[in-house]
C-alpha cells in the first residue's frame, strides 16, 4: 500500500491492522519502508524476539567485503549524496 493511499485512508488502515486482519506494508516511492501491525501482533513479535526465536542474519564473507568496500568509498569521498542523485534524476 502506498503512502499516499495510507494518508487518505488512515483510519481504516489502522483499524485493519489493530483488528488483526492483516499486517500492512507501507511503501514510499514503490519501496517497502514500514510494516504496520496491531499491538497484539507486535507484542507477539517482541516475545519471539526476546526468546531469540526470530531468524537472524549474520553477514557472509561477501557481505563483509561489500561493507568494507562501501566504507572505503565513503572515507575517500567516492560517493553520491542523495541530494545530488535526486538532482540528477530531476526529483
Helix proportion range: 40-55%
Shape: flat
- How many structurally independent domains? 2
Main sheet makeup: 2 strands, antiparallel
Structural class by helix and strand composition: alpha+beta
Order of helices and strands: HHEEHHH
| Chain-averaged pLDDT | 80
CATH architecture of the largest domain: 3-Layer(aba) Sandwich
Task: Could you tell me the CATH topology label of the largest domain.
Answer: YefM-like fold
Strand order of the largest sheet: 1-2
Write structural notes for this entry.
The protein is flat and about 50 Å long. It has five helices and two strands, in the order ααββααα. It has two domains: 1-55, 3-Layer(aba) Sandwich (YefM-like fold), CATH 3.40.1620.10; 57-91, no CATH class. The protein has helices at 3-8, 10-18, 39-50, 61-75, 82-89; strands at residues 24-28, 31-36. It is an alpha+beta fold. It starts with a helix and ends with a helix. The model has no long low-confidence stretch (mean pLDDT 80).
